[in-house]
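User: C-alpha cells for this one?
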Amino acid sequence: MTDNGADSAEIGIEITLGGIVQGVGFRPFVYRLARRLGLRGTVCNRGDRVVIHVAGPGARLDAFVAALTAEAPPLARVDQVSRSVAPMPEGADFRIIESGAGTVSVGVVPDIATCPACRAEMADPKARRFRYAFTNCTDCGPRFSIVTGLPYDRSATTMAGFAMCPDCAAEYGDPADRRFHAQPIACPRCGPRLWLEGVDAGPGDPIARAAEVLLRGGIVAVKGIGGFHLACDATQAAAVDELRRRKRRPTKPLAVMADAATLARLCAVGAAEGAALAGPSAPIVLLPVQPDAPLAPGIAPGQRQVGMMLPYTPLHHLLVAAVGRPLVMTSGNGSGAPQVIDNEEARTVLAGIADALLMHDRPIARRLDDSVVRLAAGRMRVLRRGRGLAPLPLALPEDFADAPPVLALGAELKSAICLTHGEKALLSHHLGDLDEPGTADAFEAAIADYGALFAHAPAVVAVDLHPGYHATRLGTARAAALGVPLEPVGHHHAHMAAAMAEAGWRRRDGPVVGVILDGLGFGADGSLWGAEILVGDYAAVRRVGRLSPIPLLGGDAASREPWRVLLAHLDRALGRAAVDGEPSLRPVFAGRPVATLRAMADKGLNAPLSSSAGRLFDAMAMLLGCAPGRLSHEGEAAMALEACAQADAAPYPFVLRENDGLLEIDPAPLWRHVLRDRAAGASCGAMAGGFHSGLAAAFADAAAGVARRAAIGAVALSGGVFQNALLLQDMTRRLEGQGVRVLAPAEVPANDGGLALGQAVVAAARHLG
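Assistant:
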C-alpha cells in the first residue's frame, strides 16, 4: 500500500473499543489487521474494552479504524469506538501486550458451540486432536463457564492449571493460527483428560465404555461445560422411566440431544429453529415431534413438542456419535437441588441416580443450565437464559446512559439477577427456584460472583414488593449493608418494564399499556395479582383492569392442586347449588373436601383472592382432563392445555364490565359454554382452543380500548403465561389488527427469569428523576 502527500506522514492514535470484544479473538484479529496494513503499535484488553495504540500513515489508519467494525470476528459486537491523538508507540512492529486493569465489564462472552473447523479436526485421524474431547479454538469453546476473573486471559480461567505443551504454545503464539491467543487451548498431551467411573470403569476409551452403558439402558452422568447432565437412550422407554424414577421427576419434559441428521428425522425443523439449533449458543429448541419418531413416550408426556439440542461440545459430539441414537440430556441434580458442577459432589449426589460417571478434570467456574428457546409470534423467544446466552449484555434505551448502577434481585421462582451500568444491563443466567433446597446458597454465591467478576458497585438495590421472598429479604439487608437506597418494584410493573426495555422504549416515549398474565405476584394493593392491565411508564404504573378474582382455596395448595381452583371458578360462575347439581362434575370433585374449602372461603381463612391467569389455565385443564389432581411441576397443566388446543377454534365468551373503577374481565360465560360443549361431546382440542382464543380476544380488546382512549400506541405483553405460543400469537395478531404496536420479550424470558431486568430499569428510571 502506498500513500501520497500528507497522508504518508506517520501519526500516532489510541483507539478504544467497547462491546463484546473479549474471548472472541478480537486481539488476534487486530494484530493481523495491523500487520496487513503495515502499522506498528500494541493491543491489549482493559476491563471491558480493547485499547489499541497504533502508528502509521493517516490513510492507513483510517482504513484500519473502518475495518475494526467492518471485518470484526463473527462473535464480536462492537458498540463503541473512540479515537484520539496519542504519542508514537515504541517499537517497529505490532504486538499483543499484557492486559491492563479496567473498571466495570459487561463484555464477557458466553460459552460457544464447537465450530466446524474443530469438528473436522476431531474427525481427522492425522490431526493432533483426533477424537480429543476438549478441542477448541478462538472461534469456539468454553468461555463464561471457565472465567474466574478479568481481563480474559488464561491465568484468569480454570485452564490456569494446565501448562501448554510446546505444540500448543506455538499455536497460541502464531498470528496465522486459528488458536492464536485462544485461552482454553489444549491437546491430549497437555490439556484436560477424560475418564469413566462406576459401571465398566477401567482401561480403554471412556467414551466407548459410556456408550456401552447407555446402549444397555443405563444412565450416565456426563460432565459438560456448565455442569453435569444425566443421559440415557431416548429411544428406550424403560431407560427413560428409570431415569424419571431415580431423579424423582415424574412428568416434567426431558431434553434430547441428537446429531443434525437424526434430529431432522425426529422433528419438524423450520428455518428459524434450524438457525437457532446451529447457532453459537446451541440452545434447547422446542420442536414439533414427527408422528413416527422413535422417541420413548416418557420424554415429554402429553406434549406435541420436545426440547431438542445439537451436541455443542467435542465431548457431546463424540458421545452422540458413539451411541448412534438420540440421548436424553437432563440437568444432573437431585430433586430440588442445583445442577452439580464438582466431581466430588457428583460422586456423592449423582451416585444413586447414574450407573456411571463420565468425568474430566477441567474445573467449572459457574453453574450454567442449558438455554431454552421456542418460536412464537414470528420470533425465537428465550424461555430460559443460560449456557450460550449469559452473560451477553442487553442494550438499554439511550436515555438510561446517566442512570446509577443498579443491582436487581428478581423474584422467588426462576430467579436471576441483573446488574446495570449506564446503557448496559447484564441479566444473569437462570439460577433456579429459591424455594428449592440448596438454590438459595447458589443464588447468594452468584450475586458475589457477578459483582466481583464485573466489578459492579451498586448505587441502588431493587427488589420485588413481596416481603416474604428470599430475594427481597436478601436485597433489603444488602442495601442496608451498602448504605444505598432500596427500591421495591411491583411484580407486574417489573414484567412490563422488562418488555419495554428490550424493545428499546425510551423514557421520553411516554406511557404504554401493559397486559401482564402470570401465576401470582404481589400487587400494589397487597393482594395477589396475575392477570392485569396496567397503564404507565418506567417510573410508575396504575392498574386499570384485571381478571375477576376468585379465592385460592387452601392458599399455596391451590397452585399444586388445580381442582381447588376449578371449584372456586365454577362456584363463582354458576353458584354452589348448580355445581353440586351438575352430574358431569361429580367425578371431578368426588372424595375432595369441598364443604370444608367452601367454609374456609366464607370465613376468609387461607383463601386469598387472586386474579391469576395461570390458575385459570389450571382450572380449565382440570375440567378438560388435561391435568392431574396434583401437579408435579410448575406449568404442567397450562403446558398440557396448550398442547391439546386447536389453533383455529372459535373463541369462548368473556364479559367486560366496570367494577370498583376497574375494567373487569369475567370468565363466567366461558364456564357455562364449556360445560355445555363438554356434555355435547366436543373434543378437548376444540374446547382448549376456544379457551385460548377467548382469553386472547378478551384481553386484546380490553387493552386496545384502554390504549385508544388514552391515546397510547403500544401494548406490552409479558408474564409467564405469554410463554404460551398460541396465546401470544393470537393476542399479537388481534392487537396489531387494531393498529397497536406490541412489545413482547424475545431475548429476555417473559417469565420471572426476566423480572430482574424490569426491576433494574424501574429503579434506574426513578433515580434519574
